[in-house]
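Please produce the structure of this protein holding calcium ion.
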Amino acid sequence: MSASTGTAHASTLVVFVKQGSDSGELRSNGWIEVCDKEADGHGAYMYLNTETGEDRKHFDRNGSAAGCSSDFLYADVPGLEYIKVCEQINNAPDKCSDRVNISYGD
Ligand SMILES: [Ca+2]
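Below is the modeled complex.
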């Protein structure tokens, strides 16, 4: 059972991003869900950058174990500049999807 059940359906999907099999979802009410689907020891996270230049990472807190991690954003969706989904690589640059610009609400 996902913690997001119920809440996620009260809003519209803004963007769904994949990096390999890992994925991240952003919804219009600020709900995000990050899913680490690769049992490769590389933690998956959604990277968010706001129009004021703040950034934050939201990890799938149980890694590649079953279930994803959901959170509400610290920022309004219209205040986001872009997001991407990444996996953390030790001693090397993280592997990330392309940036996805967020124009929702702009
Ligand atoms: Ca997981």
